[in-house]
Amino acid sequence: MEPTPAAISSPLDLAHGPTWANRFALAPLTNTQSHADGTVSDDELRWLEARGRGGTGLVMTCATYVAPAGQAWGGQLGIASDAHLPGLTRLADALRTTGTVSSVQLHHGGRRADPALSGRPNQCPWDDPRTGSVAMTTAEVEESVQDFVAAAVRAETAGFDGVEVHGAHGYLVGQFLDPRHNDRCDQYGGSMANRSRMLLEILAGIRDATGPDFQLGLRLTPEGNGLTVAEGVQVAALVLTSGLLDYLDMSLWDVFMSPRGDVAAGEEERLLIDHFTGLERGETRLGVAGKVLSAADATWCLERGADFVSVGMGAILHHDFAARAVADAGFVAVAPPVTREHLAAEHVGRDFLDYLAKGWDGLVSQG
After folding, report:
1. How confident is the chain (367 residues) per 10-residue block, as mean pLDDT?
2. Catalytic residues
3. DSSP label at residue 205
4. Are 64 and 104 in contact (CB under 8 A)?
5. 265 and 359 part of one domain
6. Residue 329 sits in the same domain as residue 346
7. What's the total number of domains in the chain?
8. Cα–Cα distance between 288 and 273 in angstroms, integer?
């Protein structure tokens, strides 16, 4: 007999750290609101604090660079040095007062970093002349692992409840997983065991360096950037049963979509979400993200086997998306386009507004 799915309003216990008040997490959204040196701005603090006040069970920062070489865009939040600690501490303190659980997403752009910001060539598992990236030495890979670990320790020092490692969307950790290009001859390339080694070393290092109540998550994408669905499932199965994670956050682009690439015979009609909700997960919680825009969408994900949902667009449109969805089973987010005034009232800062207007087609009305 299948277990009854939890309600979106039900608390979520994890193996480590505090219980989430409900099954909603704020997706880690690029917002370009940080200062040029990577420190927290007032706009960024207000944006995240509002989502905590809005009832979100877990509030997560944007992708936050763990080393200067990993910075991928201007206005990106940083956790690469102790100079970032005062602002991060202020942010963690503000989130705690809202009652939410807080997390920093740890990120390195790899070949997708911006060398104009770092002043050095991009780092990558392989030489990539198209992006000007140079292959990392074995020692540099090991150093990058320690950058992630040190960043997690800073997050804990600042007062955050946990961190999420960004292994999705073709950034550095995901680049190591890429079987098309990662043909390194050291222990970090070639076989799946070697390509996933950096990721597992980061997770183990963070678990060893932080306290027993510190939560550790990971974001992955199911396919693309060199991975087939079968390989994405293989990586997910590996980390779900590793005993290292509290949760795996699968970024599906659209929770209702089918795989875009080739799948095994007989699985053509199987939804992408179903490839992951059926995996053995032990105590690890499984989350999904992608176009969850209503209470019904979130409930459908839990009925499909997810433990929680990460909300992006919905949380941009409504700072209290989670509270509205918990209170009203019929709640649906307002349909874009919306005005700048609407978004400003939802505590979206000016730099974030400009980013959304330029990069998110059809979101911000031009009138």
Report:
1. 79 98 98 97 98 98 97 98 98 98 98 93 92 95 98 98 98 97 96 97 98 98 93 97 98 95 73 96 97 98 98 98 98 98 98 96 88
2. 171
3. H
4. yes
5. no
6. no
7. 2
8. 8
